[in-house]
């Protein structure tokens, strides 16, 4: 009899939990940002909130600045799945201080990642190439295709914010004196294309890149070490400034990438907010997913369905077992 009562109590508790979650959630709007990783996360959130928590989840087009501004000033949309904090730092801090926004958790567990990279096949042959000292000692390997007497360091495309940081790091490391020319790839496609070209021919390559990206999901690259740790203050006050007079080499600090909701949503939908706090991707996971999206020319919805079908080991860790069972049932119908 005690066992029957216990089982009955657990079933009632589970039913009560689900009813409370559905009552709390109602209609929820999610910003579908216009880049691949954010669109993928938005579609994953829509699927899980709809099928796991009974929400009426809707996607709305979004971009960093207009979405952030709308959330602060109009209280919509409810969720921005991937906010790169440094891009809207002042607006985010104002929204939080005025109790209009709430931070649910980290979209990317490792944060956004930047650095100088070399192909892993080079490091496998010579482990010293994972350090800047090893790169400089072997500068002749990285031949500049326009000048065989010089070496090539591929920087960030002109006009991008990372052009400033990559150029200042190039100066700080005295790569010019070491024989490296700073190559402007012309565009993001030109930069990624230079990595693909080198990889297909197993040739040397050295330059700037960032994660999560499809390229680092496709091609195994190693980040070059040129400082013991990141000097965040110097990076912010000098390396990221165009007029940095005396740049000092520092590893790129991780960029804070978080899921942000309106404060009203956080108060009303505590079960959904708790899920968002647990939902997080590593850069390695996201790199692979982005590579799959590119190879299959998939949009955020198709990529989210592929993720839900093939990565239960990841998403099931974000929700309670009874919610996972409901989601699993919906996944079986995809």
From TrEMBL:
A Pfam cross-reference name: OpuAC
UniProt domain ABC-type glycine betaine transport system substrate-binding: residue ranges: 27-308
GO molecular function term, any single one: transmembrane transporter activity
InterPro entries for this protein: ABC_Gly_betaine_transp_sub-bd
GO cellular component: ATP-binding cassette (ABC) transporter complex
Signal peptide: 1-21
Keywords: Signal
Gene3D superfamilies: Dipeptide-binding Protein, Domain 3 (3.10.105.10), Glycine betaine-binding periplasmic protein, domain 2 (3.40.190.100)
Coiled-coil ranges from the UniProt annotation: none
Highest taxon, organism lineage: Bacteria
Protein name in the entry: ABC transporter substrate-binding protein
